[in-house]
Amino acid sequence: MVVAVRRGxxxxxxxxxxxxxxxxxxxxxxxxxxxxxERVDWASRSSAPARQARRTPAEIEHxxxxxxxxxxxxSVLGEYGAAAIRHELLVGSxxxxxxxxxxxxxxxxxxxxxxxxxxxxxRRTAPPAGWYLPDLAARRVELDxxxxxxxxxxxxxxxxxxxxxxxxxGGLTGAWPEWTATTTATMVAIEAHxxxxxxxxxxxxxxDTRFQxxxxxxxxxxxxxxxxxxxxxxxxxxxxxxxxxxxxxxxxNGRWQAKIWGRFWVDSxxxxxxxxxxxxxxxxxxxxxxIEAAPARLPFPEVWVFDPKAKPVGQLVFLRRTTERxxxxxxxxxxxxxxxxxxxxxRAEVDLAAGRIRFHALRRRDPTDQPVLREHPxxxxxxxxxxxxxxxDTATETHRE
Length: 401
Hints:
This protein is of the alpha+beta class. It has a 9-stranded mixed sheet, sandwiched between helices. A 3-stranded antiparallel sheet has the order 5-13-14, with no helix packed on it. It has 4 domains: 2-39, no CATH class; 58-112; 134-293, Nucleotidyltransferase, domain 5 (2-Layer Sandwich); 315-379. A hairpin with a 4-residue loop joins β10 and β11. It contains 13 helices and 14 strands.
């Protein structure tokens, strides 16, 4: 276009020939001026003005930076942030409030000029799924998490509960609505689920009594714990009032309520069970690729009968946070862990066959470093002992089984 104009053709005819506006031709001719075309800078330029009309004048910015340096060196209170700078500007120019920008403007000036001391929050990479169990984090085994959704009510005022489950790596889901998710109903549902899909290496629960058993006795193994141990599945109990360990099952609980309970009007338990079963079957089809890519599950034994009175054997895992004295409570007992590891996470491995309990340190920042902090001999009592409240040094009441 510039060459055509320089040869004598009018700008309007050049614009019609190239299919552009007259202003476009005029802009590029002005850009070229009388320079050699090979030396002209044809790069695109911003249409924004070189200086924003509402930008703080440069002299005020320089004054703000100078005040910050002065306050940092001489302030009695040691304050030299945006609030202190604005106060000095108002004191120095009482008749000219325009010379004292707002706190946010001063903060932006300090940030733009690189005059802030505060460091931005470091976003560390999240630990791998199941980081608190090394073989689980390495995807050598699978874990199933179970929970109960409570507080749902059908028309007529009848409350119900939903036992839910999901595998950590495969996302294999399950949901079983019942009037009450008792321990017996939980064992029946889990047994059917494991018979159909296979057993995981770990089964994770919260500390609800229907899962762990009564908290009122020392060394009490609930029926569900004995059920898992009889199938060579390690029960894992999440730490109370801790975020993250139950994230997978809590997320599925919310998803189930949004896709089933919040979408449909159900007037009976049978209707809810049918809708839930269709949703679970569809989720298995939808997530088939992920389920197949997960670690292999163990087959359910062909001949197996649960005996709740049999002596429990195997291993249990308790995730706990230590107290200010570096102790941790497991199965109604208080164990010394490490006085230098107070208010920190630990993994307590109760090995019933070896007769010991071992405490490992847990760090989200370094999930692969899990050293052993303390090991104690452990032998469950053969008689029932009431669990004493913390700080109670009175004799425990003993009941023979």
